[in-house]
Amino acid sequence: MKRLAWLLLAFPLLAACGAKAPSSGLEAIQKAGKLVLGTSADFPPYEFHTTKDGADAIVGFDIAIAAEIAKDLGVSLEIKDMKFDGLLAALDSGNIDLVIAGMTPTEERKKNTDFSEIYYRAEQGLIVRSADAAKYTSPEALKGAMVGAQKGAIQVGIAKTRIKGMADDKADHPEVKELGKVADLVLELKNGKIEAVVVETEVAKAYAAANPDLAVAPFVFPDTEGGSAVAVKKGSSGLLSAVNATLARLAAEKAMDGFVNAAKAEMDKL
Ligand code: ARG
Known about the structure:
By secondary structure, this protein is of the alpha/beta class. It is built from ten helices and 14 strands. Strands 8, 9, 10, 11, 12 and 13 form a six-stranded mixed beta sheet that branches. The protein binds arginine (ARG). The site of arginine (ARG) has 15 residues, from β2. Arginine (ARG) binds at residues 40, 42-43, 46-47, 84, 101-104, 150, 153-154, 182, 200.
């Protein structure tokens, strides 16, 4: 009986050890010689796809920051492009070492994830069709319209509370459409399936600049939660300090503006 109890105790433990995801600590990264970045490359100028020397490449100012972090760690950078709503689970399972994806460090996310200092501030805006720009000049004007937001992003809550007037942003709303990729929301907007996409204003401007049939709505929702930060697996204090050290260096060198402008210049080539 005693033996059986031991076995029962030991098995889940053994199974847990065997299934342990590769450690995403600083040492493991240095040992592997590479830093694996998770991002959702549908978010110009933060991160987006472009063609470099005939091949697909992911660029943007988040990627420039990631490259600096990798450089300071003395390792190479590998980029994994995924849906935004899968990033934190990938981080938790050790599939990626860090997330840089214009991610807002919300209180809810902070429960299970550690965040760096804020590296970029933002406001929230809307992409609409140019033809409707004069119609959608306030949140109230969109109250009865189909509005899109990226699945898992804070914009879903903004659409529900600030446009639809819902008190609880966890409940579904039939006129808030959630999709995994911003580019797919933009397609739905172009095709008349939705009337607006809630997104960071810089991203709205980027899509409008690249698509003459799209425009930025003339109002914003200030981002009260504070902008973008780098996410690491909860408890990865070594990696987090390294990330903050690189961010502090970039701030001291006033490098961010240059990164943002370089990203916008890449966008012009699209
Ligand atoms: N800042 C918003 C959030 O954290 C949206 C970020 C979306 N990022 C992206 N790469 N698609 O929820």
